[in-house]
Amino acid sequence: MLVDQFGxxxxxxxxxxxxxxxxxxxxxxxxxxxxxxPRAQLMQPAEIDFLARRFVDLGVNxxxxxxxxxxxxxxxxxxxxxxxxxxxxxxxxxNGIRIDDLLPEIRACNFSSMNVSLDTLQRDKFLQIxxxxxxxxxxxxxxxxxxxxxxxxxxxVVMKGLNDDELVDFMALTKDQPIEVRFIExxxxxxxxxxxxxxxxxxxxxxxxxxxxxxxLMPGSPHDTAKRYKIPGYQGNIAVISSMSxxxxxxxxxxxxxxxxxxxxxxxxxxxxxxxxxxxxGEDPIPLIKAHIYKKKAKLGGQMTQDxxxxxxxxxxxxxxxxxxx
Length: 326
Ligand code: SAM
Ligand code: SF4
Description:
Elements: E1 12-16, H1 45-57, E2 62-66, H2 76-83, E3 89-94, H3 103-109, E4 113-117, H4 123-130, H5 135-148, E5 152-158, H6 167-173, E6 180-185, H7 202-209, H8 213-216, E7 226-229, E8 237-241, E9 254-257, E10 262-264, E11 273-274, H9 276-280, H10 286-294, H11 321-324
Parallel strand pairs: 1-2, 1-9, 2-3, 3-4, 4-5, 5-6, 6-8
Antiparallel strand pairs: 7-8, 9-10, 10-11
The structure holds S-adenosylmethionine and iron/sulfur cluster.
């Protein structure tokens, strides 16, 4: 079991396949001086498989593939087919661009959920956010997943003045389709120019949608990051991930493996442990994994206070989101 000093058990591993991407979302990928890791620095399929199996031996029962964009990796099909053999729930977070290219492989992996990121329903705003004119591709691929009956969620990073005028339009998507739209509070990472006044909070999101937690909150579990709400008569539901205004650290069961083989015990941690180099020199990674998880800080990587309005983002020490794996 992977237990930290506060008794939290870690059963959910997010594996980043790459720090490369076919979009350039401004809040995720730093504008200046961003270079992708050379291939030799990335975990290779056999290494991913080996490490994933060690984590399963240590009690991991859910794996999510992420990135960068997991589906830009040429060998993504091979990697996911291997992980699909493990006794875990397998999920994926993607920008959706390549879902049509990889549909047979996606189908074969039996993902419990495909989370597709889409921050706007407006083509010109999509271009502004991602610096690529690919809105139709993503939108059509969400339709494709629904048509195929593959469980699908839409991730929307909400920012004041950017897309907070579209929340109602996103909620409307859940009326006639069995889809969860997840609104994510904007978080600070290296190079993303985060300021507290861009964060639209959980409470503000509910307020602008006319959602009453007393009436609409769905039952949850202690490890949930999202609070889920259902409007009577709607096929789908909405959810809010309140990392900034109401963090959920006490029930955290998540750990992250970056594409270059570093283990992070928290999204906001300033430390990481290298598993890939020791693995390549024949060392057993299990003691390193256990020791690093044991040291996990109580809250927010030990770097952030509960009140995000007091946060000085430039003082945080972390990677950019694209290099962590969201
Ligand atoms: N490329 C894939 C995608 O876009 O879904 C997977 C990687 S991406 C880093 C994972 C998730 O993190 C996406 O839903 C993205 O919108 C979210 N994300 C990135 N930067 C963020 C930030 N600063 N605050 C909140 N969410 C963020
Ligand atoms: Fe790429 Fe996803 Fe980051 Fe956008 S959020 S730049 S799609 S990794």
